[in-house]
Amino acid sequence: MKGLLLLCLLLLFGGQRSSACPHLCSCHGSQVNCSSRSLSSSSLPTSFPAGTTELRLHDNQLTSLPSGLLDDLTSLRSVSLQGNPWVCDCGVLYLRAWLLRQPAALKSHLGVNCSSPPSLRGRLVVYLTEQEVLDSCHYWYCDLALASQVCLFVFVLVQVALLVALFVFLKRFERLSKEARRTTEESFTAGEGLRENDFMPLKDSST
Fold it and tell me: What is the mean pLDDT of residues 119-126?
């Protein structure tokens, strides 16, 4: 019984959450306006009301859309995405695929242009070929791989320098230990000699 009650509460609150107006956006009926809010891809709402018919996301700082963000909005009739600095690498694949599924009358693709990389700047996302996107992904991953290799090389150099410093320190410590031990032995030997010399006059005087 408790489990059934908990399930009902989850469904109830889940339904209320899906119909609530997203934070930083304004809603009027089925229209959701998130435009000109300086939203980035990380601060973009993770969901929108299920019955949204008009969604405005233009003039923000969006570089990509999270995968699946718009898939459940089956009632959409208008979406504005222009005025955002879209980065046309692997992260744009979802947006491109979603735009390709939309009817031409929706015109969601208008103004959705690549801001980077330089080779694709100004291109409409919807007209990018899959190979062009994959090439930009490969370029991006190559840069990341190169940066990772440089960091790894620097890390290895630091480790080698530390090992060399440790080796030099141990050698020096060993040398100092030997010198200290030798000095101690010499001091002990000299002390024994002095004690023997101290006894010699006593023997002479007794005779």
Answer: 92
